[in-house]
Amino acid sequence: MRDEDTLLYHIEKGEFFEASEVAGSILEESPDELEYIANFFATKYWLNREKFFREEKKNYDFLLKEWKKFESVLTEKGYPTTKVINQIKRYLLLKVKSNLENRQHKEGIEEHDFPLLLEIAKGFLSVHDVSNTKEILQIAKLIQPFHPQIFFLYGDLNFMEMERTGNFEYFSYALSFFRDGFLLSPDTLDFKELQSETIKKIIRELQFLYDKNTEKVHYWLPVSIMMKALPYNIRKLELDEIFNIEDEVSRLEQELPYVNVKYREKTLSRLLFFYLVILHSLLHHYSDNDRVQEILSQIQEYFPQLYLELLKILDKIPSSDTI
Whole-angstrom Cα distance, residue 273 to residue 24? Predict the structure, then answer.
């Protein structure tokens, strides 16, 4: 067994003394290697805090707070996040999950547990632990089934599954979850929480386009997601959902001539997102060619450059033959 594999094995078992011994041996052979310095520091750090794993009454948000302190120390020292550090994080998260599940069996999960469940899910997602992320999200969804962050995390998780398996069905699922999250509340998405390479690439493209202006990336990410979703048969929206979106479109169209210049781009991006959501539904699930033409005309008026890009996408969608 290679030294790194042995190190990861000991951490998986919670054997931090043995892990620190192996990390020390590796570091002795390459004392200037920053990754090995980080690994040795991390194993020693958590060896000195092993008692935290046994203090079950504190093992809910307490361990997560301790992990955030540890991450701050890593940042201060300029240490990279390594496989070993991610393995320690996973071990910690499994401890939190196990204790939470024990409490769930005895007392049940309550509304106030929801933020903690989200933190645990984000943690598992950050170490690419798909199975445990799913389990935690399923519990969180029982408490707040329509919280936008649930949808964003499921979207990111499905992108990750697509990257891992090569199964493109996950791509459609991910687009659907992101769309639904943006319909609920686009402002609740935090870029730092996203882990899949697919969504990171989309964000990097927008950051390049908007010179790393975070506000503008937030505005236009929903639009970018819907442009990518147009060729795919994602979740069918119910008629009442379509009617609600149409009401929002009507409201934004009426407000647009009077909106403060400071908020005009945000209003325009939200309006375009809704146009694309309706357009997708009309192309794949419903039929109203007159409304399709109205939407395309509006997009051409407000976004002439993007309209040309949109036409190229529509040309490749079989249901758009008559457009």
Answer: 53
131 contacts: CB under 8 Å, gap ≥ 6: none
Q: Nearest to residue 251, comparing CAs of 266, 271, 265?
A: 271
Long-range contacts of range 56-60, CB-CB < 8 Å, 24 or more positions apart? Answer: 56/99, 59/95, 59/96, 59/99, 60/96, 60/99, 60/100, 60/116
Q: In angstroms, rounded to a whole number, what is the distance separating the alpha carbons of residues 175 and 277?
A: 12
CB 8 within 8 A of CB 87: yes
Query: Whole-prediction pTM value?
Result: 0.92
pLDDT digits (tens, 9 = 90+) for 196-252: 999 999 999 999 999 999 999 999 999 999 999 999 999 999 999 999 999 999 999
Instruction: State how far the Cα of 236 lies from the Cα of 238, in Å rounded to an integer.
Output: 6
DSSP state of 259: S
pLDDT-flagged residues of the chain (< 70): 1, 55-60, 319-323
The token pair that represents 51 in the structure block: 């008692």
